[in-house]
Write the structure tokens for this entry.
Amino acid sequence: MTPAEATKLFAGDCDFLRATALPEQFPPSKLPEVAFWGRSNVGKSSFINALTGRKSLARASKTPGRTQEIIFFDLGHRLMLVDLPGYGHAKAPRAEQDRWNDLIRRYLAARPPLRLVCLLIDGRHGALANDLAMMQVLDRAGISYQAILTKIDQVHATEWQLQADAVAEVIKEHPAARHDVFATSSEKKLGIEEMRVFLAGFAENISPKLKIR
Ligand code: GTP
Ligand code: MG
């Protein structure tokens, strides 16, 4: 897919499909799927908004733990974008965290079309202990994942570059991780176009017949 086609895909229709905390309510998995995961407040919902050029498609918030359900968005009937609840939210009651973790584990185990997890990592802090633990969860589940630094507008370029190098070192040890690191800012729209091109590569192709029509 060309960069122009990727831009067009993300500028086109993107519809909220379902928000649910119940695995039996996950929508039928007919499209290739990409999920967004990371620490609470790392910027997952903002990232989905930046990719799709919307202000409030996914609900972003200053309050960590905003996204409490698994939220499915249908991008042009070609790719499912999935906003996952974050981990490591210090203020959430233990029982609630366990419930989200269980929900996510069941999601990861039950979605054959899941092509990729975008693992968002705060560009100011790099990969922390719970990020490493979640990498292991993905390794064990055999789900390919892409490390992406967020909020790079918040630190000097030399600082996030150091963090990116450190994350690149860490993921070398993780079998299911892709071996490069993206650096982004949803706020300043940095690295977002590159992400669109990369993610569009996972979308369902339109058949030549359909393209002509
Ligand atoms: P949970 O749903 O609680 O897990 O959070 P989340 O990962 O979806 O984070 P969300 O997108 O809600 O963003 C959390 C906060 O970070 C909000 O105040 C956003 O405005 C802010 N934020 C997100 N991306 C960026 C960014 O690129 N730069 C800056 N400066 N702030 C950002
Ligand atoms: Mg969120």
Summary: Residues 3-200 form a domain with the Rossmann fold fold (CATH 3.40.50.300). The first strand starts at residue 14 and ends at 20. The mean pLDDT is 91. The pocket of guanosine-5'-triphosphate (ligand 1) is lined by residues 38, 40-46, 60-62, 64-67, 86, 150-151, 153-154, 185-187 (CB under 6 Å).
